[in-house]
Amino acid sequence: MEWSTILGTIVGAMVGLMSVFLADHLRWRREEKSRLLQARQQVYVDFLAALSKAHSDMRSVAFRSEFSPVERSHALLEALDASGVWRLRQSISLIGSRKLMHEVVTAARCLEGVCEVLSHEADVSSDRYINARNNLWAANAALRELMRKDLGIAGDPDPDVHSYRPLGEKEGQGTTTLGADNSR
Q1: Biggest alpha carbon–alpha carbon distance for the chain
Q2: Residue pLDDT, tens place only, 68-103
Q3: Per-residue DSSP letters for 62-78?
Q4: What residues have CB less than 8 Å from 148, skipping those under 6 apart?
Q5: Under 8 Å between Cβ of 144 and 48
Q6: Which end of the chain is more exposed for a tag (fewer CB within 10 A), N or C?
Q7: What confidence tens digit (pLDDT) does each residue in 28-39 have?
Q8: d(Cα 166, Cα 49) in Å, to the nearest integer?
Q9: Mapping DSSP to helix (H, G, I), strand (E, B) and coil, where does residue 177 land?
Q10: Measured distance CA(121)–CA(105) in Å, rounded
């Protein structure tokens, strides 16, 4: 038996093993990337749901007339804490970009603004509440668009993005308004 035959067999086996290991590694990387993308998507969805839940629960507190101002303030803070916004904000700080984190903080601060307004006056038709709510909606819309971009979601932007008033702008000051649905 010649050495060249043995050497050729060994080299062929090594090339075969290396290609199997390389293919396995590439598949693992692809699966890991997909898993991380799904985890990021879930945290984003959970955060947006928590923002919505906190706002909705705070509105419910505002509609309860049996609360004294102090009780209402405590109930509003409870609603905010129970929503999970703070826990999810921390999760996003581990996986999101600085730009995304900036938008998350902006949305959370707008939610705090809604809480503060409702703690002082439980009137969801007041100018202060409507302005705070519009700020929250605008921040939420900007955050959703950035999250879509971060997740690589192509297509048209969220149709609501351009219908919210810029931060600080009151109803009736130009730009498109949301129509009659004030229940959000």
Answers
A1: 98
A2: 889 999 999 999 999 999 999 999 999 989 999 999
A3: HH-TT--HHHHHHHHHH
A4: 157, 158
A5: yes
A6: N
A7: 888 888 888 899
A8: 22
A9: coil
A10: 24
> From the CB of residue 145, how many other CB atoms can be counted at a distance below 10 Å?
16
Handedness of CA 148, 149, 152, 155 (dihedral sign): positive
CA distance 64 to 68: 10
Lookup result for tokens 């997909």: 34
Low-confidence ranges of the chain (pLDDT < 50): 166-184
Q: Has this prediction a pTM greater than 0.90? A: no
Assigned token pair, 2:
């010649």
The H-assigned helical ranges of 97-158 are 98-120, 127-150
Instruction: Please state, in angstroms and rounded to a whole number, the distance separating the CA atoms of residues 117 and 123.
Output: 9
